[in-house]
Amino acid sequence: MMRGAGCRMRDSSGGGNPSRKRKRVGVCANDAPPREHPRACAWGSDPDGLPRRKSRTLGSPLAMFACLLLAAPPPAWADDSLPRAQQASFRAALAAAARSIVRIETIGGAQPARDASDPQRTTGFRTADGPTTGVIWSEDGVILSSTFNFVRDPTVITVQLADGRRFVGKLLARDQQSRLALLKVEARGLPAAKWVDAAAIRPGQWAIAAGFGHGSREPALSVGVISGVNRMSGQCVQTDAKTSPANYGGPLLDLSGRMVGVCVPMGTGDDEFAGVDQYDSGIGFAVHADHIRRRLPRMLKGETLKRGLLGLVLDPRDPVVGEPWPDEHRTPPMPLASRPDDKPLPPRQPDGLAIVAPRRGPAAEAGLAEGDVITQVDGEPTIRLIDFRRIVARKAAGDTVEVAYRREKTTATITLKLWSADDFRSTSQPASQPR
């Protein structure tokens, strides 16, 4: 082997034993010219000593991607400033409202029956022991909650304020239609809740449901948005924040800590369990302040409010815009199951709701008859059935309404007092449900 200039020989045997065969290996010095020892030193040359063109690439595609990833700025999702800011906003909203949220504890009571006339028929939803939630309405000790929290008719009610003070509460009244309960404690100077005007509530706004139902020292939160307004015949706002027995009776807040409404279960029935089966479904309801103000005067007197009924069967069809189809394509009107005979419905009236059949009740006693057209209730037009229902839903049994109607070519206005379902049961009510 030819030794190149600048190279030296070293002993690779690993010791000084002369009996072992020695092997000499060429080692290049740092300043060794590559061409003088190509195989050992010329890393930029081929084994035959010819110059090799060095690659200008950065290596494999994976290595290139790693380099680009390290050089690029961090993605937006890697920055946690937005979630942290949202959490701070939610906590600030709760802190602003915390003094107006109370913890309610009840003792005694029995599981209720769904139908008071049949005590053996009980609901499948059982209430558990544990704290519930309420909201301070006024500084003189008036507190709002949900009727769901008092279905067991407890014998003792205690209310704990945010500062730790405890008071014995008295259940003044219930609103069975709106699922509201009104309590009173003997205290003054309480921090009343601040409410959002119903006209300022818009879909898409943040909504925070708060409640003590989990037994925590501070209210647990569920966050969502306002899904809709004027829901449940105009009584409620709808939210996808999860509402459940954990926060029924508690507030639905905005980001400023103002009360949007009181969280309640809402369904099609009138008992306190109606709508409970929708809990944690993303379909929640809260009764807004405007509706509460309409109901409070009678509740403060200790009256239990029930759904008000006029005792009418109305034409449910909406007005049709445009020319009718030819007779061979026209679909006959759907028969109305609650009509006592098989006669076809009269032509749809464009300015109101035609009375299909009067029932026993306030409307019949006031002289309204079949064929009369109700054009207004309390000064508001009733073009569609949903308009009529929304207006009447603001009232309770025992309230009065002014009904404007047209009979042939004459118009008149009468004042009617709404009945409850119990009033109809006490008379010979037909099988159909009146409105």
Structural write-up:
The protein is of the alpha+beta class. It has three domains: 7-41, no CATH class; 81-111 and 126-305, Thrombin, subunit H (Beta Barrel), CATH 2.40.10.120; 312-425, Pdz3 Domain. Helix content is 14%, strand content 28%. It contains seven helices and 23 strands. The strands form five sheets. Strands 9-8-3-6-7-11-10 form a seven-stranded antiparallel β-sheet, with helices on one face. The longest helix has 17 residues, at 81-97. The protein is globular.
In short:
By secondary structure, the chain is of the alpha+beta class. Helix content is 14%, strand content 28%.
Helix percent reads 10-25%
Binned strand content:
25-35%
Structural class, by secondary structure, is: alpha+beta
What oligomeric arrangement do these chains adopt? single chain
Using the coordinates shown, work out and report the CATH topology of the largest domain. Answer: Thrombin, subunit H
Strand order in the largest sheet:
9-8-3-6-7-11-10
**How many independent structural domains?**
3
User: Mean pLDDT score, rounded?
Assistant: 79
Q: What is the H/E string?
A: EEHHHEEEEEEEEEEEEEEEHEEHEEHEEH
Per DSSP, the total helix count is 7
Shape: globular
